[in-house]
TrEMBL record, chains A, B, C, D:
PANTHER family: FORMAMIDASE C869.04-RELATED. It comes from Streptomyces atratus. GO terms for molecular function: hydrolase activity, acting on carbon-nitrogen (but not peptide) bonds, in linear amides. It comes from the Bacteria. This is Acetamidase/formamidase. The lineage of its organism: Bacteria, Bacillati, Actinomycetota, Actinomycetes, Kitasatosporales.
Length: 338, 338, 338, 338
């Protein structure tokens, strides 16, 4: 891609970011730029066989490397950065998943602390067939194999947080970050509220696929070649990350306990409908209560993430975020993808 | 329906049950019986216009009337009762929803207690078009109307609880009860573990449709004419309510905080796959983590309910619950539905 | 004690209650009656040595036997029963504690479900010196012994619940029940809101002592000889169990997650001060925020229990519950204790 | 104080830190240094009368100013910094408390989100009598006044966090920070695990007194003149902040939901006893279960904080943290306090 609007970034070792906030920008980009980026997997590429245990090959806190951050020219607190996912393609024909001691939903953890012994540390290597778009699961304790559809996504996308903070790339919160929702797939636009000048956008943590809730704490982790189109919405604030697809509006909430993540995401969707669709808050509350979906994103990270989702065809007429998603979709279609 | 295998029950006022456990059976039924029942709505039919506020027309604790209980002949603790939903049809051309003071997900409650004033009490009357299978939402604070697909379901189905307890019909727990999941629709089989002799099955709380999470605490509440086919699985225990459709296996968990409902449902699905599909527990944990869905049921009731769900086509070969769902599906197809 | 106002009850095997609600009263008592009762320990007396594992010697659901219920003549919904603890004396010179598989705060449980193995099941036998008022802890894995002060209390006291429910004696909720707070000691008055005619009061689960939070799920469990003085407050409602000592007012809340138990207890104390001490709700909120104590009761039972506590000498003048505690204290002093 | 071991620091406006981590050290200090510091109140001194509403006079995120950070010479990750509180004296004869919109335990918040209106914003000015050691509460809605004992403490003390993070001074976590426990009073030693070279210690948020749980979210906030003695324990790690008084050992945990804060604090205390007192983990679990106290610290901050506490006289012989508290106590006694 030699298009001047396209910036290609393939970080070398030592060039990744491990936090949101606190890292110097790798580039300044104008709104309207396509980023063609390589992202490494959450293990920094160190889990390559069933013998590579996270506790042995990974080096804390150097987990979940992010490509970026990118300084979006003109972005200021109170604005919104829109990240449209043009394509997300596995960069390898394999991916890895694993249990991690005292991490995941079906084990005690450092926070849900117990005196029990951790679960065994086991690695599953998944074979990816990029032509047939499949991921092959091979059981460790039997000969069972199961082929699942590939459904590539990014677990992590975000901007620098508010309140002068720097957060680990493992954390999801109002700045985005490690939300780990399968909804962050090709074709959607993610809206992120800007907290610092330039927004400082980065992304990583590609998954060839992931179940809702990411129960064991780790998805089908994979390096990715990803193209996103980045835009800027001046003067529009976005309190929590939102996602728009061709068919749905989605709000996210990240918190503990999980009901607070639910409450945040539902209130955000209610207030989004009230702002952009002419409904009163109570009418929007009623409509979301009967028409909404609530797929869990992750129930394993430092905060849990919940998605509130509603079909656009079930909404009254409205123009969310000034019609930006439709515009980005059309612009992306003009690009000859790599 | 004059088929001897069919029992028709249309309770009169005073003949409903308000609890699981603690109510005398209305009938004894043999396994293999079709129940053709009328269920009243959760308001006991008392909310019939926008002027009928729950706090004025309803009488606590007489909420969420249940049709039943039915004594299933031969059911003993350690067995499983299977309830196959043959049809769920709205009995009226309207349904009601409402806010209830200090009840719902986006308000403080008697448990998540605060010093704030409750939200206003507002009723929404929904028009049902049973031919076109639609539900019409009419906003209260504007002229906006939205037509949604009808998707009838039962919020409540369960058996007498364990541990000598009697629980309000408003409570979901291991005995089933008020789980409020939209997955409880026509065509599925619900498996319930038996805790007392005869199981004491009842059901109610029909919804013309409901969003995931039932955010405002109340769905599109509607009286129903429902046909279920009841079977008994001797010697098979079911620790938490499970649902099987033609395409999916589902486990439920009901608890607070919401992450515990998630944990229960996920562990139950993992252990179900381990029992019936030949996977080790850790392999099942990995497969569910990557292939599972996790739609919320309710985040408003005394316990919150979460569903763990997996596509049967993505599983290795297995025969869950001895192939009972397929058998019930076929048996139901033979019945000329009313 | 041959005083006509005294009723002595020493249940035989088979005469205990295992629930709140759902059990026939063992006696009708007039307000002003002293109950001189024997209570068995939570294991129904079956854990008598280090070899008696709960999973082997106890029979679910026959845990936590209650002495009662007592029908308090004249008690109706909306009234309050007051239970003044005159004396609580260990009935044996030993007590037992233990880990129970998948029960307790530092282990996964049936609700906080995990794939980990349970902790080992270990019994600790405690020697009680009733003259010196001490409890002797003997470590199992070393020769260490520690002598702690005896501080006898009842883990469980309550009335029949509202909403037509019957709850296991293991559950704490608005009806009281298994609150497991060390504050329920000799000299205090416990106020319980009446939900059914006659209140149906019972008590049990004596502890020679207990830490706050009851971390391992089990206290120093002991049969007790206990004297309580029971009174009735007509026309005074008590939404959650309250405790009054000579020095403190206390409100309890029982719920999950633990912050909801905290919220309930704090709101109840704020509203208690607003009702009986002439403070506005916001002023009471401020005073409790600066003057209150918040000792945890249990973080292991079906609901967790939190206590909100304030010194009476730090309150403006007021007369809580019509001065009943002071009156009961004086009446009890007149009784020659056994 | 002209003692060379004493460093006096009275920051000017613009010289406070607003985060843990991410701020340049104001001084390098040798272990054994006395810090004689002024700390401003959590409002940065801007709430000075009943008319000064936080939402009007304070400027987010410039809340909770910290004095520091101090680079402790020689401190490296894996070590422990000990902060002994020699004296904490109110710097003014008044202090302020207030409700803050959508902050506190008895209101919905940005995380426990609801559609309800916030509580009214009210300021209470407290008069401090430093000679009589009292704090005078004056109700806003009546003439009621109540005098409470002064019990000065620091809500916030901590070091730079691990994992490359920078956290707002409003956050409590494993690095300490805004724990808001009344136990952080004169005479105690706080142990903090070192995460970065030099530790980067800071403190602030003085309270003339505070209730357990800090229910309304704000204590009796007061600028302080405080003397601490700082020491370094090489090669001793401290996973969560610990506090030692002359009479008690205390562990803290900060997390959501509140039961996780409880679990962390209890597990830490159990493992502390196992390390320093020769008990096995299960024996320590039993002893803490029967002898421990569990006073809540805060149930309002970004994480909730719980304290696990045990009397030293009830422990077998042991020498926690190499007897450092006793040594610091003696050293402090030699200092002629200001």
């Amino acid at each position: 891609m030699s298009d001047p609007r396209i910036l290609t970034v393939r970080p070398k070792e030592g060039e990744y970011a491990w936090t949101f906030g606190g890292a110097a920008p790798v580039a300044r980009i104008e709104p309207g730029t396509f980023l063609n980026v390589y992202t490494e997997d959450c293990f920094a590429g160190r889990v390559r066989s069933e013998k590579d245990l996270v506790s042995e090959v990974c080096e804390f806190p150097f987990l979940n490397p992010q490509t970026g951050p990118f300084h979006v020219v003109g972005a200021e607190p109170g604005d919104t950065v829109a990240v449209h996912f043009v394509s997300i393609e596995p960069a390898r024909d394999w991916a890895a998943s694993t249990t991690v001691p005292l991490f995941g939903a079906l084990t005690s953890t450092h926070a849900t602390a117990s005196l029990q012994a951790p679960l065994p540390e086991v690695v599953w290597m998944w074979q990816l067939d990029r032509d047939r778009r499949t991921c092959l699961f091979s059981a460790r304790d039997s000969d069972i194999q199961v082929e699942l559809p590939m459904d590539p996504m990014h677990g992590t996308v975000g901007v620098a947080p508010a309140n002068l903070e720097v957060r680990s790339a493992l954390v999801p919160d109002a700045h985005g970050g490690n939300m780990d929702t399968p909804e962050m797939r090709t074709g959607v636009t993610c809206y992120l509220g800007v907290n610092v000048e330039g927004a400082l956008l980065s992304l990583g943590d590609g998954h060839a696929r992931q179940g809702e809730g990411e129960t064991c704490g780790v998805a089908v982790e994979c390096a990715m070649n990803t193209v996103v189109l980045v835009e800027l919405l001046k003067g529009v604030s976005t309190p929590w990350p939102r996602i728009e697809s061709d068919t749905h509006l989605m709000s996210t909430g990240s918190a503990r306990p999980l009901e607070d993540a639910f409450r945040i995401s539902q209130l955000d969707l209610v207030q989004w409908l009230a702002r952009d669709y002419g409904l009163s808050e109570l009418d929007a509350y009623q409509l979301v209560s009967q028409a909404g979906e609530a797929p869990l994103a992750n129930v394993c990270d430092t905060n849990y993430t919940c998605v509130a989702k509603i079909r656009k065809e079930w909404l009254p007429s409205g123009d969310p975020h000034r019609g930006l998603h439709r515009h980005l979709r059309e612009t992306a279609a003009l690009l000859s993808t790599p």
